[in-house]
Design a protein that fits this description.
By secondary structure, the chain is of the alpha+beta class. It contains 11 helices and 35 strands.
């Protein structure tokens, strides 16, 4: 058949496509694209060398503009091939080369969209079939009560979460739903993106997930800030410079002892996650202690002033309880072993639920006189020698202190149940410091038998020095060196500087704002697998009749098989403690069978070895995916008696030391496309050489 003439409709129609194809697939466009790609890859390799692969992926490889650039290369290659239509024998090498480039681009796209990079840590004798992807996620657990019936319904959206805390018992039936929220915050602390910190680079224009991540059914989760590496800093935090030498002011400032004080908060898993505060107590000198705590409301501040002991303290001390700005004084001797007694005309009853004379600690049960027997009671914990651990009854608004006279008269016999060491601790002088809700500091002085002033004094925060116990031969001088206030105790995360090229553990932290039915709280979350403090690993916000818990961890994925670690071996360089080689001996097991042989687990590989630079390829029976398992690091060895040893061995097998292996697990669905593309490139170049094209 003859070719269409230039004036024919077919030629004219085809020419309208050929002309732009020739421009798009021209050698000039190809050269320009290849130069740009080469420069970008040089930049990416430099970033990988100066920082790490994670930064290179965030700044270059996983960006939208790099994907567009590769798509343009693919369009140029396809257009160049189409402009050669109709293809001849001499075009074979040319087409193979261009088709190889297309295959490589398809492989890159498949790996980007469906590839898996994860890790797994196993200790000897352990078996695992779930790895963690190197992608963070936030988990929302929404718990709502059901009016009728009992039990709990659980629903998951996304991958299953870490085992949640048990729901409270005796509160009817609950419905729980878990929502998974993947996010990509980037590899840097967000505070480092400002001028003069991170050098100008492609990471400044790379996409970061921030702002509102979830907004559905009255639950809103916002990502406010993110730290790729952080350290915990509890607040409120107080640092005092203290001197009890009796020297002048200049000498005191030149030879002070620094005492640091913190207040931590724990939410109880019952009664609506109530807050329990624990302060700090330090020794200024062998005879003087300093305690620090915080007040959450004005009534608690007022009780700090009103809870003064009066009259006889008795053998076991005096309890001063304050309700609505009025103090009530009770002797421990009169409460011990007795039924509840009324607390004045407040309508409340007080019962000494437990008393420990060895630590001078009293636990009180507070109930209302007209309340039914099944009504919840309030609990108080008061200590005579460690007031920083006092716990008021906020349910009924009862606050107070416990006073024990450590200084006894020579003819006065102390209570026989109070040990001598406890009486000596109670006889010490003490300075009690309180942070008020207005974030001011006040203090009072206790000399072991009486308070030295009618009202607490103000502690200046500007570094001015105050003198306590000034009427004694050993006054204590103190001044505030550092004070970080907080209305409510919490954990603030401070950024660690970025350390490129260093193999150090990182502790990521995300600051989120969780709103449940218009009840909003803002707080820091640390990574559950790498978190630094339990208080920041999860947080619960109560809404209208429901509660929502949020936590952060890595996304788990099921391998479809199990790895059983038998032995983790590490060899050192002679005469050093540096590892020269490490490897693992493992069994690869299938999933447990169902039916009559439910206890049997098929063995896919027996006594296989995973070494550095010699990965083990395993095909998952359930999905057909080929995973490559690398030996990336090791753990231990840990000797018997260590925390890690006891946690992982726990008497299950006799051994004196325990080692572990860190496996890097990869699934690359584009690998065969890469191989085929590279083969086509080689064959195409050879064909072009022999055909002289």
């Amino acid at each position: 058949m003859a070719s269409p003439s230039p004036s024919s409709p077919d030629r004219s129609f085809w020419g309208s496509f050929v002309r732009p194809l020739k421009v798009v697939g021209s050698a000039a466009v190809a050269t320009g694209l290849l130069v740009v790609v080469a420069l970008v890859l040089i930049m990416a390799v430099a970033i990988d060398h100066l920082y790490n692969l994670e930064v290179a992926q965030f700044a270059v490889y996983h960006t939208w503009w790099f994907a567009v650039l590769l798509c343009l290369v693919g369009v140029n290659v396809i257009a160049a091939a189409l402009t050669r239509l109709p293809w001849r024998r001499r075009h074979v090498g040319f087409l193979l080369v261009h088709l190889g480039v297309v295959f490589i681009l398809i492989g890159a796209w498949a790996t980007f969209r469906q590839g898996i990079d994860g890790r797994m840590v196993l200790f000897e004798g352990e078996t695992g079939g779930t790895a963690l992807e190197n992608r963070p996620r936030l988990l929302l657990r929404v718990e709502e009560p059901i009016e009728q019936g009992g039990g709990m319904d659980v629903k998951h959206e996304g991958n299953p979460p870490s085992p949640p805390a048990p729901l409270p018992k005796g509160e009817g039936r609950w419905r729980a739903k878990t929502v998974e929220i993947p996010f990509d915050p980037g590899p840097f602390n967000w505070c480092d993106y400002g001028w003069g910190k991170l050098p100008i680079g492609p990471w400044h224009v790379a996409h970061r997930d921030k702002g509102v991540l979830h907004d559905k059914d009255g639950v809103t989760l916002e990502l406010v800030d993110y730290l790729a590496d952080s350290r915990p800093s509890p607040v409120p935090r107080l640092a005092l410079g203290v001197s009890s030498t009796g020297a002048d002011k200049a000498a005191a400032h030149g030879a002070v002892k620094t005492l640091e004080f913190l207040v931590s908060m724990v939410r109880t898993p019952h009664e609506g996650h109530q807050r329990v505060l624990f302060g700090t107590q330090r020794q200024a000198d062998p005879n003087t202690g300093i305690s620090f705590r915080t007040a959450l409301n004005s009534e608690e501040t007022e009780a700090f002033s009103l809870a003064r002991p009066e009259g006889s303290l008795g053998k076991l001390g005096q309890l001063v309880l304050c309700v609505e700005g009025k103090p009530y004084r009770l002797l421990v001797d009169d409460l011990l072993g007795k039924p509840p007694v009324p607390l004045g005309k407040t309508g409340l009853r007080v019962e000494l639920d437990d008393f420990k004379p060895s630590s001078l600690t009293a636990r009180l049960k507070i109930t209302r006189q007209d309340a039914p027997a099944e009504a919840p009671s309030g609990m108080m914990l008061l200590s005579a020698i460690r007031p920083n651990v006092n716990q008021p009854d906020r349910r009924h608004g009862v606050y107070g202190d416990y006073w024990f006279e450590g200084k006894r008269k020579p003819d006065d016999k102390a209570a026989e149940d109070v040990p001598e060491v406890t009486r000596k601790a109670a006889a010490q002088r003490r300075i009690d410091i309180l942070q008020t809700p207005e974030e001011k500091l006040i203090y009072r002085q206790w000399n072991g038998s009486t308070l030295l002033s009618d009202k607490p004094s103000s502690l200046p925060t500007d570094g001015s020095e105050v003198t306590t116990f000034s009427d004694t031969d050993k006054p204590v001088r103190m001044f505030v060196k550092q004070y970080v206030a907080a209305v409510e105790p919490t954990i603030e995360m401070e950024p660690e500087p970025f350390r490129p090229g260093e193999e150090v553990a990182t502790f990521p932290a995300a600051r989120v704002r969780l709103t449940v039915d218009r009840h909003a709280e803002e707080f820091w979350l640390t990574h559950r697998g790498r978190g630094t403090m339990r208080e920041t690993m999860s947080r619960t916000v109560d809404g209208d009749g429901r509660r929502v818990t949020v936590e952060m961890d890595d996304r788990p994925f099921d391998l479809g098989f199990q790895i059983a670690l038998h032995k983790s071996t590490r060899r050192l360089d002679p005469g050093t403690s540096q590892p020269a080689h490490y490897f693992s001996r493992v069994d690869i097991l299938g999933q447990p069978t169902q039916g009559d042989n439910a206890d049997e687990t098929p063995i896919l590989m027996k006594d296989a070895t995973i070494e550095i630079n010699r990965p083990l390829a395993v095909v998952a029976p359930t999905s057909g995916r080929t995973f490559r398992i690398f030996q990336s690091s090791f753990e231990g060895p840990f000797l018997a008696g260590s925390e890690t040893f006891d946690r992982h061995v726990d008497g299950r097998r006799p051994c004196d030391e325990l080692s572990g292996s860190v496996f890097s697990i990869h699934y690359n669905p584009g690998r065969h496309w890469f191989y085929a593309g590279c083969l086509m490139l080689i064959v195409g170049i050879v064909v072009m050489y022999y055909l002289k094209t």
